[in-house]
Write the structure tokens for this entry.
Amino acid sequence: MAQRASTQAIGFLMQQGLENADCLSLAAGFVDPATLPVDLAQKAISEIANQTAQGQISLQYGAPSGSDQLRAVFRDHLTQLEGPGSKMQELPLSRMMLTTGSQQFLTLVSQAILNPGDICLVAAPTYFAYLGVLDGVGAEVLPIAADNNGMDPAALNSTLEQLAAENRLHKVKLVYVVSYHDNPSGVSVSEERRPQLLDCVKRWSKESHIFLLEDAAYREMNYSGETLPSIWSFEEASHNEHVILTQTFSKSFSPGLRVGIGVLPPQLVNSVTDIKSNEDFGSAHFNQNVVAHVLKSGDYQRHVKSLHTAYRIKRDAMLAAADEFFSDIPEVTWLKPEGGLYVWMSLPSSISTSFKSPLFRQATEVNKVMYVPGRLFYPSTWEQRPDNQMRLSYGVLNAEQIHDGMKRLAEAVKAVIS
Amino acid sequence: MAQRASTQAIGFLMQQGLENADCLSLAAGFVDPATLPVDLAQKAISEIANQTAQGQISLQYGAPSGSDQLRAVFRDHLTQLEGPGSKMQELPLSRMMLTTGSQQFLTLVSQAILNPGDICLVAAPTYFAYLGVLDGVGAEVLPIAADNNGMDPAALNSTLEQLAAENRLHKVKLVYVVSYHDNPSGVSVSEERRPQLLDCVKRWSKESHIFLLEDAAYREMNYSGETLPSIWSFEEASHNEHVILTQTFSKSFSPGLRVGIGVLPPQLVNSVTDIKSNEDFGSAHFNQNVVAHVLKSGDYQRHVKSLHTAYRIKRDAMLAAADEFFSDIPEVTWLKPEGGLYVWMSLPSSISTSFKSPLFRQATEVNKVMYVPGRLFYPSTWEQRPDNQMRLSYGVLNAEQIHDGMKRLAEAVKAVIS
């Protein structure tokens, strides 16, 4: 496992971040420190501590998957997001799991489902930290074309068809979909495609049971007001389900608390729970109590509304700066996200954006601005992966810094092109 | 991994705990809720939150292994435990890792070191949750005789000799030692044996590098005042070390915060850090800040002193009750621990203590008291493992309940013997 885990792009990225600390960072995928709810966390903790018994309970072990009492609070929250009448309301608590961020949940289900050599299909591009997890379990990762509406069900279907023709269908165990405001592209899977992706997965579950892992990390980070039903919601309850759902409070509340939620199909409950128990006996019970407290008090919901305003301003600042500084550069395009933390930009195909490219050197050494090279978001074994893209984050910087960062980046691009 | 993780004794034990909720529990290996530092945690959090920037930082991501600033605080703490002049003072921070309790650290290093089929040697008896981790990674687990002075270096040597004769020495990768007030036996490895165990591991590192994993979870839970140097302290610094050290704040402060520390040999830093990054990007930064704060303020050290008083009273209550109720039962013996949370008791060899035994049924159904069967603390593949032992915990109950629980248990034993 150590050998498989050892080629981590994220480690290199973090190192670059440290080495280029004098740059304006459009690279860091962090939330804005100014929005972190110090007062709300403190208030919640005081209220918990003032009931001594509750304070003691929260400082004691919980349960490996989270106590039933807390899981019921998190289920209420998911039910509210799904909307009235959702089957979420009836979900057995045993199928919910509280983890150390959603990242740990992604790792646990991958460990439970995938043997070395098994195949996982992902959108191209997709979340690079999950590509690291897949490398860690020794999975083969294949890219599925995605566009403005997310992963393309037709492309998914034809890849599965191709794998069947190669007698490799039995190796396919998992399809990974970031369903809302994807990292890196900001794109959501359209409402029309959600059931289509699920149907495709069910249709091709012939030689092995194929799971669809729905990563809804950015679900609550929508700045346009329109909310889509989860892919999870399109599946009827049964003993043999396909969709695994995960969400996190790292974007909408605090990454330092590391509270994530997962919803498991019935047939995965025992195995994932066993692996979780082995791993750490359960994530921090104290933190689960803090998040449950703000969910119940309404402080969380009010905080998320204020986040929307703050990030909408920053997203708009980045898009306005893109218009201002990149419109006159030929063959530069970018997507306009309705949520999340990222703008995904493509340069002329002749311009490499990778860590060793002239552009990265120009940007970090001369113009003092840093981005994340697009190559990181594709399976490392995919030879045709594009090399001319960048992930630009409006998470950490304020509107003025974003404007300045985009200006610097455009200057770097122009310098390299000319 | 799911299949390997699926035979968890701890799960069965927790289920028994739930089913026998009307029993006095000498089984639960938890700390006393009355000792949990609600006020200290709240005070620390207020002080952190009152410096807004510090509050925001603590709610942000840390680093996968913990930030350098925090790791320096935890290194200071370990240095203080090791005593003046310890090489701990000079430890590069990159070799320290902050984890979700020490349990996660145990899992991460096991994943890094052990392939399926590799051999790990453990004391007999030893900590059952770690046996679950070893099953999870597919290791072969062999028992090494232990007595009042902990794991026996001569027995370790002869097992390694035997494995060499069988051409299996190259499979041996790890020796696991709970060095202070072991769970379940309460025994510490004697000062004399500490360097002997290390020497033995080094001497037999011929065909593979054998690591010694020192689990010092109960190091700070010593009620007699005498402190021993860690096994780790006996090794000279080099690029190719053997001892891995781990400790936790789950016993001495709060399990609900899930803060553990590990010290890695240089050659394991990259692999364990990569696996940790994949797993969760780092444990809760907020909680690491809380523990670092109480370490710096001195509140932690004062709290640990008060714990010693509280647990000494409870340990004495259990030993007094053992004298009072078990002295007249032939062939019953028990160890007298100087720390930890447990008393380890042996019954006549004809009396089974396992979950399905007449004694367990008598104790839980008639006398309403629960213990942990000793079999759980031996490798499940070891056919000769003793079946007549019990782990009795004085962690959760108060002195009066402990007295009552021991009385009930003696009645159950007498009922089964007669």
